[in-house]
């Protein structure tokens, strides 16, 4: 994407977010940031943003509607279908016209190279941006973020781990899975 198109889309997204009423720290409403920042939108309890990716705990149906109004184009859900009893998330995404990917896992045994590969591929697809990546508590999001930031973002392991923990990574087993994946896929 050319610099001109990138700036145009970012300006358009910022305008849409201003209308929608979501805000980052100190009330700023930019949807694309160059450092990991907390964000507020609806009732989402854990929400951070960096570079057009929003890292979240489980949004409610109205939160997704607000995110759509704010410019989100794609939702990546890391929860398994049988975990989602609050509402029919895939149906809501279809109704809202959002691209939707369910790459669910629950537990370290299910966090495979294939899961990392699929989500990293989505996070690295510019036309899917802005993306909302979520699970239940943001613990799984943090594990994926750790691998993505080291392998695709050029961050040191320690810096990426700090970001992942800020986002919501709590499980030592998920951290170990991410570390092993990074070791197998690093350059």
Overall structural domain count: 1
Q: What's the Cα radius of gyration?
A: 16 Å
The structure class reads alpha/beta
3D shape = globular
Number of helices: 7
Strand order of the largest sheet: 1-2-3-6-4-5
Observed structural traits:
single chain; about 190 residues; alpha/beta; Protein-Tyrosine Phosphatase, Chain A; 7 helices; 6 strands; disordered N terminus
Question: What is this entry, summarized?
Answer:
This protein is an alpha/beta fold and 187 residues long.
Topology readout:
Layout: H1 3-20, E1 37-38, E2 47-50, E3 53-56, H2 61-69, E4 74-77, H3 89-96, E5 99-102, H4 113-123, E6 131-134, H5 139-151, H6 157-167, H7 172-185
Helix pairs in contact: 2-3, 5-6, 5-7
Describe the structure in your own words.
It is a single chain. The protein has 187 residues and is an alpha/beta fold. It has a single domain, classed as Alpha-Beta Complex (Protein-Tyrosine Phosphatase, Chain A). 45% of the residues lie in helices and 12% in strands. It has 7 helices and 6 strands. A 6-stranded mixed sheet has the order 1-2-3-6-4-5, with helices on both faces. Strand 4, helix 3 and strand 5 form a beta-alpha-beta unit. The longest helix has 18 residues, at 3-20. The protein is globular and about 40 Å long. The two termini are 25 Å apart.
């Amino acid at each position: 994407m050319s610099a001109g198109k990138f700036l145009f889309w970012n300006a358009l997204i910022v305008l849409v977010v201003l209308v929608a009423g979501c805000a980052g720290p100190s009330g700023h409403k930019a949807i694309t940031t160059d450092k990991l920042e907390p964000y507020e939108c609806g009732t989402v309890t854990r929400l951070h943003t960096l570079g057009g990716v929003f890292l979240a705990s489980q949004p409610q149906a109205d939160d997704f509607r607000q995110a759509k109004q704010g410019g989100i184009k794609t939702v990546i859900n890391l929860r398994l279908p049988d975990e989602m009893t609050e509402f029919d998330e895939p149906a809501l995404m279809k109704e809202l016209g959002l691209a939707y990917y369910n790459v669910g896992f629950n537990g370290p045994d299910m966090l495979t190279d294939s899961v990392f590969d699929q989500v990293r591929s989505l996070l690295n697809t510019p036309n899917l941006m802005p993306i909302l990546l979520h699970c239940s508590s943001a613990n799984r999001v943090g594990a994926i973020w750790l691998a993505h930031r080291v392998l695709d973002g050029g961050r040191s392991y320690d810096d990426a781990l700090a970001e992942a923990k800020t986002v919501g990574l709590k499980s030592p087993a998920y951290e170990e899975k991410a570390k092993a994946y990074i070791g197998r896929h690093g350059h």
